[in-house]
Structures are given as structure tokens and as C-alpha cells.
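Page 42, continued from yesterday. The earlier attempt failed because a stray header line got pasted into the input along with the sequence. Redoing it now with the clean sequence only.
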Amino acid sequence: MKKLFLTLAAALAIGSVTTTYANPDVLQTKNDGEQLVDKFKQLSRNTEWAEKDKVDLQFNTYHPQGMTKIGDLYYMSSVEIIEKPVKFERPRDGYDRTPGKGIGHLFVYNGQGKLLQDIKLGEGDMYHPGSIAFDGESIWVSVAEYRPNSESIIYKVDPKTLKPQEMFRTNDHIGGILRDGEKGKIKAVSWGSRTFYEFDQKGKVLSKTRNPSHFIDYQDCESAGNDNMICSGITELPQQGSNVAKYELGGLALLDMKSMDTKHELPISLFSPQGHTITRNPVYLENTDHGIKLYAVPDDDYSSMLVYETRFNTK
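This time it went through. C-alpha cells are written below.
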């Protein structure tokens, strides 16, 4: 989801590649966040999204989870599944499935889809990264077991050095996390976003509430400024006459970060080359002069970053 408080104006060296974030044309400011929220409130199920670009990613993306954009680089979390978890006939020791095996990744790539860096994240059974968010200083990412009601490690990653720092651990599957860059509190969602958490930076739970919305399960969330956050996600609905086929309903939601109440939400009826709703996996929203630009990587493995834009009448 959507980066909005970029104050980074330093050079980032990745291998032999150097990118500078001083260009004002690619930096988003607090004002961008306010404009994005205002424009987001005008979106509806009838909004027309034009496909502007399709960037083939030149690496195995595995199962992408979350993404953010800093300057002209993209950061995307993903889980490489080596052994899929297997569901039990009945719960064992509080779990509904085996832990499986895998590797957590944080990819850095450029606008041409070239992989610049692959940062490994996680430990033991905690190998499943969730959605990520940039708070103006660091990228926050959770890495959990690939099963509900489990455990997670919360990291922050310095985009200048790309070194991850463990911040705390918590006893639940955290599927998405972001830090309020102004107030410092950390918001998080559980498996399927059924539970909302608020942590301090040492991992103390300040609040834990149920998500009252059942429209979509949030997959990727990011701060939009002024106590707002935008989440994207999916719900799978049964298809009549089939016990197997599912319809993927995608959507976007604007939430109040204080109350976690939904302020505005809408379905998204765009689908990927593999037939997935574009909000299935990572999504990032960006304010533009004339509207909103949406970046998405809905497909797994060797996939593409799809770029859409909707324009508003600015008169």
C-alpha cells in the first residue's frame, strides 16, 4: 500500500547499482498523503482504471506478499514455500496445520523489473513475510509461521543499508504491519486481518480488537497520513455448482488508524494474466498530479508488476 512520508534524500548503494532519492519528482510528501486520501474517497465500483504499464519481473517472485516504493525502487516481501503446511483432521497443540518449510524474502528491484537485492528474513518455522510499509525512515515487515494463531518476528529494515533489525516477537500470526511515522505506534493485522493490534516499539500490546468488516481480508496496508491507512485485499467466494472453484473478490479500504473504523471501501474488478484479482497480493497506491496510480503483483513465481491509473477532473 502506498508510501507517503518520504523524507529520504540519500544515496542507496546496492551492489554496483546506485540510486539517489533527491529527485523531487519521485518523492512523496505529507501533502501527497492528504491528496491521496481525498482522491481515494472519490473512488467507487464504477471508477475506470487504465492499464499504464506491465513490467515483467526478471526473477522468481515466489508468492509475493507486500510492497512499497521509495524513490524509483520497489521493495517486495515474498514467501518461498519449500514444503506446504498440511491441515490436521483436528487441531493439535492449538494449531490447525503443520508448520511447513520455507524462506522469507525481501526483494529490491527497479522499474525495469531487474532484481537488485534479495534479503532473507525469518527464523525456523517463522518464514512467511507479511505486507510491508515504509514510515519515512525504515521498512517494517513481519515474518510469521505459515499458520494462524502462531508466532511472528517484527523487523525494520534500513533502506540505505538493507540491514534488517529485529524489533520484537509476538504470539500471533501478524500478516501486515505499519508504523505511524508521526506518533510512533505500530498497527498490525492478524491472519486474514480478523484481529487488529496496536503495539509500542518494544512489542507491548496496547490494544487488540476484532475487525468488524468482512468485506475483504487485508493483504497489504500502508499509512496514508493524518491517522489514515489504506489496505488492499481479497476474499474468496464459492461459485454456484462447484465445490472447488472460487471467485476472487478484490478490494481497497481506507481506515481510521485511531479507531480502525472503515471510512471508505470499494471492490476492484481487475484481473491478472493468470486470472487473479489484482489486489490478491502486493498493492501500492501513489498520488499523482491528476489521480491515483496503482501498482500490483497479483501472480506468483515469474510474474509481472501491473500498473494502473485513474484520473480525476481537477477543474
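Notes: Residues 11-311 form a domain with the Tachylectin-2; Chain A fold (CATH 2.115.10).
Reminder to self: strip header lines before submitting.
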